[in-house]
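User: I'm writing a tutorial on reading structure tokens. Could you give me a worked example: one chain, its sequence, then its tokens, then a sentence or two explaining what the tokens reveal?
Assistant: Sure. Here is the example chain.
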Amino acid sequence: MGFFDTFLYPFKIAIAWLWVVSHDALVALGTNESWGWVGGILVMTIIVRIIVLPLALKSARSARAMGVIQPEIKKIQDKYKDRRDPESRRQMQLEISDLYGHYGANPMASCWPMLVQMPVLFALYRVLYNAPAIAHGTWAKSSLGPMTQSVAQNIENSTFFGAQLSDSMLTTSDPHTRYLAIILVVVYVALMWLSMGWLAPKNMGVGNDQAARMMKIMGITMPIMMAFVGFNLQIGVLVYWMVSMLFSLIQQWGILYFLPTPNSPAHKNMLARHQRRYDSYKETREGEYTKKIEQLGFSDLAVSEAQVKLGRAERKSETALAETRSELGENMVKAVSEREALQTDLRDKRIKLELEAAPRKQRDPNKKSFMQKMLEVQDKAEARQAGRADVTPGQRDHTKQPRNLTRAQQKEARERRAQAQAKKNYDKEEIERKRAERKKAARERAKKKRQQK
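And here are its predicted structure tokens:
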């Protein structure tokens, strides 16, 4: 086994176990052997997508938060635009990090779903790639976890619409397998285009022209690239690929419907839906409130005036509040409480439906952000360098990486540092003397040129 197989070996074992157990369960439920292995791939896809789902939702929430805070990040960057000193740059990074923490945004959140799925995809590819060798007894080991020689032979004899699961378009001479591979690749490319070329633009914030152009380019180039990659994959991997993309489309539609990026077309559609829901809720809630105050014998105008009086009295003193309550009477105070409850409920509903800005997320003061951790690491590195005479804080210590340089290169680097240090130690007289020498040499060169002419 090469390095790639050695790295993927634990994932291959896990995929083999999951596939074999899923196959056995489906066969026990009454499916045949071939569809048992195909169904095992489907079960594997569902399990992986369920595992990735929380990360995908977190990524969507982070993307929404990033869209909200972009104007505030721009303000912070403009504030430090003309300040290039290290302390100002550090303060800018801390302010941006604090902004991320308040809104729960993470620029790296979008990478996690892909990073989780990549080892699974590569492991499944290698399991199917190694299955023929295990079946013929020519693999480096006698088995791959539960995938013994007999199990591998069973996989080799299994088909998906007449094509073996371990065959690909480039490794088989069977025209039927090639046609099926082409169909699966075309279906996958079509689903990817729907995802990147049709649904993704609906979730792009208005005004982000550069991101829109990049998404448009990716919507064209990525399906073409994946089509070339797909022709090298086995039928089993293409099935996993296609089903995973179908789940991704459903997930993306759900995010567009429930968690769209602010200022995007999908977000405008969501706000329109929420406005209709709010109007319906408001009508029902106001009807309940009107019925209650009518039973108490008051109109909304009278209750509104009483609410203003109580508010003014509360701002004055507790004595004034008690006197005003006594003056208005118990029934009016109840009516005012009903009006305040109505206003609170309507505001909470607006916040829940995102028709009104919610308060910022309260951040745990003891929890450090990713940026703060990185700055602490940088401070520690500079503190270590400060203890050395030949290394200036803030500069890279090349002597910490001797394996990247030959001895001659290390010697040359030491001489450059020595020359740079010597230049720093020049006094003013030495600097003026060297400047005069350069001017004199320049005049002599100009004089020689004139004489030659």
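What the tokens reveal: The radius of gyration is 35 Å. The first helix runs from residue 3 to 28.
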